[in-house]
Amino acid sequence: MSSLILRTAVALIMPLALLFSLFMAIKGHNEPGGGFIGGLIAAVSLAIYRMSNGPDTFRQLIPLHPRIIVFTGMAIALLTALAPLALGLPLLHTWHGYVGLPGGGTAHASSALIFDAGVFLVVVGASIGMIIRLSEELEA
Amino acid sequence: MDAVWLLTLAVLAPLIAGVVTLFLPRSLIMPRVVIATAGPAIAFLLVAAHAASHGITSEPTDSIPWIPSLHLNLGFLGDGIGTFFALLVAGVGVLIMLYARAYFGPEKDDLYRFYPTLGLFTTAMLGIVVADYLMLTLLFWEMTSISSFLLIGWDRFDKKAVKLAMQAFFTTGLGGLVMFGGLLLFSLHTDLWRWSDIYADGLAGFDMTLSWTNPMLWAFVLIFFGAATKSAQFPFHYWLPGAMAAPTPVSAFLHSATMVKAGVFLTGRLFPVFAALELWPWLIIPLGAVTMLLGAVIALNQHDLKRIFAYTTVSQLGLLMCMYGLGALTMTYHDQTFHLIDWDITQIANHAFYKAPLFIVAGALGHVASRQLPELFGAWHHHKGMVLTILLAGWGLAALPGAISFQAKELFLYAIYHATSVHPIFWILMLMAILTAVCNVAIFVRLTTTLLGLEGGLRTEKAPPPPWPVKETAPDYYAPDHPEDEETDAHGSGVHDDHGHAPHAPGTHHEHHHETGFWGAMLWVPALIIVSLQFLGGLITPLWNAVFRPLETNLNYFGGEGASYTGVPALWQLGIGVPLGMSLLAILGGVALGYSKVMRGAIVDVHDKIYPAIYDLCVNGGGKAFRVVQTGNLRDYTIFILLAFLIAFGGAVYFDGGMFEPVLAQMALTFEFWPGVALAVITCATAVAIPLVQARVVRVLLLGACGFSVVGLYLVYEAPDLALTQLMFEIISVILFLLVLRLLPDPESKGAWVGRIGRISIAAAVGLAFGWLTLVAASGAPFDSGHPILGDFFLRHAYDGTQATGGRGAGGGNVVNVILVDFRGFDTLGELVVLALAAVGVWSLIPPRRRYQR
């Protein structure tokens, strides 16, 4: 699947797609989006990159084994879920409020965002993990 | 000391002593014996101290909290039957500990293992009999099953012994489980969790009639099932003779005085509770009677001493059960109403006092000569002490005058005689009891004639002279010049224990020459001590009454016409009447049968086939079921899962009408918006087309088309979130599908359970069911929120609503995402785990860079 056109296009599109996925994940709490969608977008763009550029280039881009991404995401999600218990609040209780930004403005922030980050990482890691492993299987 | 601590320590003493012996160096024999013996001895003293200081009372001790929420606390009850059993267990335990040392000889390893195990067993047994909490009784009950498993399978390299241990364990373990159910049913129904509460409150308020829907009836049946298996009642008696694979100290302890009596004890405990139940006598009496007669007849047809005594134990257990069964009947005499139960403690004690000695001497004889009765012809000339002891105990077995068992048998016959006035059908029971007594007397006659070498005894045909050199002046067996080369029983190695007709050839197994002096005598002296109680009680009955009278709870002062006594009657107090006549008849018949030539062969009990047959059935049946269900075909597994879902869904719709009406209303709404209908038609069309095409790539593309039309559906219904997610998901799944497609096996694997048409219809049904469920969820009102529809609730509370929703909902403008991370956050967390596990599954199923060879 090594095509010059695809490779060139992906080199341009992928950074944008990754940015877009982060954008989707962060704005998710108040507008359409969320960790799951963001994770899927990132996974799709990474998968296409992996297909057009081959395994070695991909490994240069992400030197981690996908399972590390999955388990980091799991850990973040679990900790966010369990943290309210330590404060005597129910499991997965959400805190939200307004945080001051360095530029002087404020932003609406919520602890659900951290949970969403965990979701994002698990989705990315699991998807690209499966795709990579299955592609290796075929290319072998 | 406080009562509860006295009894707690009493219960734990044998186990603690046993465990302490583990820390001694293996070579230290004597301290080991002393410490191990101290365990039950201390237990005996503590129980006696409790009885002396707090009296024999049905007042429970305080309880030490353990798991109060499960009604499991350390609380004890030192009433008559409990104290009696505790003293019996601990007292016999002391002698068994000493006997075990003599039996095993100075074998370091055997004793090292034996004492802790026996200590555990003694503790378990003591726990059963003094526990006040029902759950505590059950706990110790199961402990006896486990420890007896260890003891029966003592010879762990003997596969047969291990099998027999498993047989005993599974049989009594099954009973224990059933009993657990019964106890729970009883306690949940009555809310009584302590024996003392049950006795104090009584069960007057509860329905005791014979009705299929009466929980008390079923509680009783289930609990009694446990008691019956433990006490080896027909048809579960097979485990007890099988358990003779255990070393003789174990047999003597478990199977005469303790473990098998646990069922009898439980029946005695239940007697005040359930005797009012109409079923009680009609279930227990026939079962006990059949067991009683069957055990006696089979015992007469055995040659192995331990097997003979095992079957007489079965018989006696039947008798004891029968006794408790009769206890529920009442008769009126001179304006007084009597329960037909006669001195149950005496009945139980007398059995222990002859059965334990019989086993002990059987093991001792097996040690020095043989356990096969025909090979012991004339053993009297060599082993005077042992033979004397076994004959004294046999006198008790035959219930001849002089032993307390004579009075016990008389009392039992009285009970039956009185029962005949309640209903003439009990004459059948009388007949069975007489026949049992005849068999017991016949066994004693054969024991006597054989061991003394008289005419009419059993002899082996192959070797008419005894297997040891006959001398005119035979030395006692522990004399120094005793021949060492005779056939000895390798400390109950159990190989021929089970079926009793495969004597070892001399020297084929490991033997250790028996000792002389103190430990040599200890092989049979404990038996003599125990059996002497038989005769003390029988001849000096007031002494017996002084000891056991305070323990008796089921007193019956009614002996018979013209007899007057306030305790167990002495010989001269027995009235002349039908029961005495029956006893005489039994003795005469027994002597005649003993001398006769009939029933002399060693038969194999047909019931020994019950357990292997069931075991086989389970193993083979399980194997067959496995081969049918586990096809290894993913399609079949999927179909199992989907069918199970469909059945559950159908049941839910059938029982809950609320899953029907709102859904129809909701469905009608769908047809008001034509773009939605059009996209739905496309979705359905692509879905239906998938199974119709053969090529896999086309199928995947069709699946993608189906998914993309769903994306369109989301868009026209204004759900951009879902549309985006679905879009991404479709892309990824198409990629994944295309990747795995080439790795899949050939399309039509054979042997699938359900054909193509069936699979299509199941898939369609599951699809419809899931659609239905979605509509149910969408149209249902959420948990007492006052909102008519779930979606409404989420819309209202997604941004603010922490009060109304109990802490859920968190300032998010995007309702879908708030549902995902907050309202339903736990669900999302679960999905994450599933996703991570799926990835782990892929990584482990497809190892990295595996090269295909084809």
TrEMBL record, chain A:
Keywords for the protein's UniProt record, in alphabetical order: Cell membrane, Membrane, Transmembrane, Transmembrane helix
Protein's cellular compartments: Cell membrane
Bilayer disposition of the protein: Multi-pass membrane protein
Transmembrane segments: 5-26, 32-49, 69-92, 112-132
Limits of the Na+/H+ antiporter MnhB subunit-related protein domain: 5-128
Keyword check for Membrane: yes
InterPro entries: CPA3_antiporter_subunitB, MnhB
Cited Pfam families: MnhB (PF04039)
Similarity comment: family membership: Belongs to the CPA3 antiporters (TC 2.A.63) subunit B family.
Protein's name according to its UniProt entry: MnhB domain-containing protein
Organism: Natronomicrosphaera hydrolytica
UniProtKB/TrEMBL annotation, chain B:
Alphabetized UniProt keyword annotations: Antiport, Cell membrane, Ion transport, Membrane, Transmembrane, Transmembrane helix, Transport
Predominant subcellular localization, coarse grouping: membrane
Alphabetized InterPro entries for the sequence: CPA3_Na-H_Antiporter_A, MrpA_C/MbhD, MrpA_C/MbhE, ND/Mrp_TM, Proton_antipo_N
Lipid bilayer topology: Multi-pass membrane protein
Transmembrane regions listed in the UniProt entry: 6-24, 33-56, 76-100, 112-130, 136-154, 166-188, 208-226, 238-259, 279-301, 308-333, 353-373, 385-404, 424-445, 521-544, 570-593, 637-655, 675-693, 700-717, 723-745, 757-778, 828-846
Keyword Mitochondrion: no
Start and end residues of each NADH:quinone oxidoreductase/Mrp antiporter transmembrane domain: 132-424
Region (Disordered): 461-513
Limits of the MrpA C-terminal/MbhD domain: 682-745
Keyword Transmembrane: yes
Top-level taxon of the source organism: Bacteria
PANTHER family, A to Z: NA(+)/H(+) ANTIPORTER SUBUNIT, NA(+)_H(+) ANTIPORTER SUBUNIT A
Name under which the protein is recorded: Hydrogen gas-evolving membrane-bound hydrogenase subunit E
Organism: Natronomicrosphaera hydrolytica
